Amino acid sequence: IESRNNKLEMQSLNNKTLIEELDKLLERFRVPPE
């Protein structure tokens, strides 16, 4: 059970990182054209 829990934690961590990377990319696209 513990190892499974660790896997889940790692997965959520990876998801967080992925979401942050996506946010960065979106920010780049959202820059106002001035």
Please, could you describe this protein's structure?
This protein is mainly alpha-helical and 34 residues long. Helix content is 85%, strand content 0%. It has one helix and no strands. The protein has one helix spanning 2-30. The longest helix has 29 residues, at 2-30. The relative contact order is 0.10.
Classify the helix fraction into a percent range. Answer: over 70%
First-to-last CA distance: 54 Å
User: Could you describe the largest sheet, including whether it forms a barrel?
Assistant: none
Mean pLDDT, to the nearest integer, reads 89
Specify the structural class. mainly alpha
The SSE string, one letter per element, is: H
- Cα radius of gyration in angstroms: 15 Å
Principal-axis shape? rod-shaped
DSSP helix count?
1
Protein name: Exocyst complex component Sec3 coiled-coil domain-containing protein
GO biological process, one term: exocytosis
Organism: Nymphaea colorata (pocket water lily)
List key phrases describing it:
Sec3_CC; rod-shaped; Exocyst complex component Sec3 coiled-coil domain-containing protein; mainly alpha; 34 residues; 85% helix
Spell out the blueprint of helices and strands.
Layout: H1 2-30
Give a brief description.
This protein has 34 residues and is mainly α.
